Amino acid sequence: MPYKAALVGNPNSGKTSLFNDLTGSNQYVGNWPGVTVEKKSGFTAGKEFEVVDLPGIYSLSPYTMEEIVTRDFIIDQHPDVLVNIVDGTNIERNLYLTLQVLELSIPTVVAVNMIDQVRGGGGDIDCDRLSAQLGVPVIPISAKTGYHVDKVMKTAKKLAGTNWRAEDVVRYDSASRQMLHEIVSILADYCDDSDRLLFYAGKLVEQDENILRRLKLPEEAIQAVDRIVALFLSKAEYGDRETVMADIRYRYIEKLVAGSVKKPENSGALSTTDKIDKVLTNRFLAIPIFFLIIFLMFGITFGPVGTFLQDCVDYLFNDILAPAVSRLLLIANAPDWTHSLLVDAVIGGVGGILTFVPQITLLFMFLSFLEDSGYMARAAFIMDKIMRKFGLSGKSFIPMLMGFGCTTPAVMAARSLENEKDRNLTIMLTPFMSCGARMPIYALFAGVFFEDNREIVVFSMYILGMAVAVLSGILLSKTVFRGVFSPFVLELPQYHMPSFRAIMLRTWEKSKGFIIKAGTIIFAMSVVVWFFQNFDASFQMVSNSGDSMLGQLGKWIAGLFAPLGFGTWQAAVSILTGLVAKESVVSTMNVLYADGGSISAALSQVFTPLSAYAFMAFTLLYMPCISAFATIRREMNSMKWALATALYQTGVAYLVSLLIFQVGSFVTGML
Prior knowledge:
By secondary structure, the chain is an alpha/beta fold.
């Protein structure tokens, strides 16, 4: 059996980089049981350790779902060893979590990350002295370069399963130790979990409701603890009961740092991060630079580089694979329906989606680079003031940024907002951000109708989504979600050059999800669409797809989209299948429109540039896929709210597309 090692640390401490370095491709992602917080696990080479990447947190207080998940895992799942990753460039704040972790009496290795940056700036950390003071191994590492990472796991292997106790090593001031010791003595009579009495004692001082429920102490024990804390506060120069443990820990941290940390000689001078921020977060330059970066990203993704890679994959499917399969079927005297199913539905539908994998991969790679470098946090900071002017919370921008990747985890991320009004409003607006699944739609239509300006047209879709989100935020914040927004607090991490390996692993993880979806959901959807396109209600094969079950359904609803410029039954059906997965819009069109020929030529016969743009706008704004809808219902804890959100988004999509086509037709008619 492999040892179970849990990685715990602050956000932006390099925890995920270390996890990727340790597990490589031997990792898998899911959700923690009962909650939507992401769960990452994996095995080291040789499977000596199962490594669990716990959510990034600042403390073990029960203020966020991430903190609760981390604390419950450590207490209930009994990992063999903890690896606490500490950001060496901000060690004082990071050690606060370290002290709480040590109180849990689990074998722990403290890994001081970014030691190369600390030493490069002229500072240093005496990890041996820090280790002697804390009573656990403290190892300087660089997750980016791999420095001493192997030493961390060798040390973890030695510690795994040992009976190390926090009471023997963690030392606060004498008065604080006396108070905690007295509370531990009370808990010893009621609690079987003797290894964590010091941790529970600190939580009782903080009046942690979750721990009180877990311990189920009798009233007389609670009153005895209250008397001890009250007596301590009356004699000490600490804060109130809610902050007293924080005061105790930070005073202890000051002593630790004073003897173990050497600050850079030029610590008063501007750091490299500060110098970069003077430009990238400048009050006048920040927003233009932000949009320039995004535009350049789309220019490369949808410009010559992305188009060339897409054409290579398209050549593989349409010029090599499809003709080869056709010849094999012809040699085998296969019936016509077999040829239609394999070539038109499977290769045409799935292959039509897979041609966009290079562009999807490029987009994810750029987003991963911006996130790992520290710029994404600046993007949220930059947009905060603007969003507040439009009635939105600054914190909302973080999940909305995530929405550029996938709506489902972006909606989950909204639970980081403490205020329920902020959270629900953010959930309603996040689907307007253009997720990666919509990109094949833009790439297809922009390539057919706007070949010379495809990157500008695609960029305009992302801008349109943000603009609609802002306008919707103004409307909803002044009507449905009136009230005061919570303050925006965000840590801006140090800039650093991301690890190439970490970026590639993250890009692969996201791209793999897209490929798997193409091989499962899109494959199934293509076959289903092909079947209903080729058979009528009596299950007889038809020669005219307009007479099929799908054709009849499409004709019934096509009239609804006629005012938007795309009133064909094929377009209507494509929009319906997009409710399962947005990528299905393209695969459905490949099956319905191409019919063995060129999808570009077929679309040119039924769409104009104006109606194509209106169609792109509708697919951008209408309700998200079923997966995202289910997540919205779960996060808002209401089917009523989820349906209202879907109806609102679809209504907005219809109105915007209607305005684009009708106003555009009027203007072009006047010219």
